[in-house]
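Feature request, filed as a ticket because there's no other form

It would be nice if the structure record came with a short human-readable summary line next to the tokens. Right now we just get the raw output. Example of a typical job, pasted below so the devs can see what we mean:
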Amino acid sequence: MSRSSLRNIVVSVFSVLMQKHYFNQNSDSRQAPSLGYLESPNPQVITPGLYVRTPRLSDRQSKIAFLVAEGYSNRDIAKELNLSEQIVKNVVHSLFDRLGVWNRVELANYFSEESSSGATEAARRRIERDRVAEVRRLKILDTSAERIFDELASLAARIFAVPIALVGFADPQRIWFKSCIGLSASEAPREITLCHHTIQQSKVFVVSDALEDARFMCSPLVTTDPKVRFYAAAPILTDDGYALGVVCIVDRVPRRLDDFQLAILQSLARLALEHLDMRRQLVETKE
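Raw output as currently delivered:
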């Protein structure tokens, strides 16, 4: 299939899916001010912890980055520094854009490169707590099949010509499959999955040949059914940097993706996020 054909399929299916299943919604225009946008405050005392390597940030931005590195949520940071949550959100978004990372785990890693292992682990626990809270707030886990997600998984399988494709969400112990093509299982233990690695980064996570990768060559998912050789997944990221789950494709033979294919997979993950947000609004309206 040619690239132009793939592009036409993606565009047409996106349009149909968005119009067919949910009400219209104005897109959220994320404000990302320049890093010189905020004044320096007189903040409350914050507990020293992680090392912060600041890329020419103002005093206020440095303090927000410091607390991001410790794994605190926008709400916690706003309360600590006596700021509005929107100001904190704007600064965090500007950091995302400046550094080219959009996952809170990666952002914390960037600003805590030289911190102790104990402090880093505490930050990860806080981020994971808030990430899981976001997943649960969406009320998506253990729900019935929904055509919109089935169509997303089917579209991924067709575009990439793979036997396995899924849309999955991560709770503390498992990756739960909202929709899955090519597997009979409905979930997998999180710690043994490749998806566990995907939700800790911003971009598409690709393993071209799992049998040649020391991290995964002994995994039961590689050595036994479904005998994963190739894996690629895009994290479903909220605009605050929490990875809710993945859009994933799997093959039983080694493969590689080019930049165009990576972009398509990321687009599918963004579409999944749009559906989640509209689904949440519908659920809240009914309640």
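Something like this underneath would help us a lot:
The domain at 138-286 is CATH 3.30.450.40 (Beta-Lactamase).
The mean pLDDT is 84.
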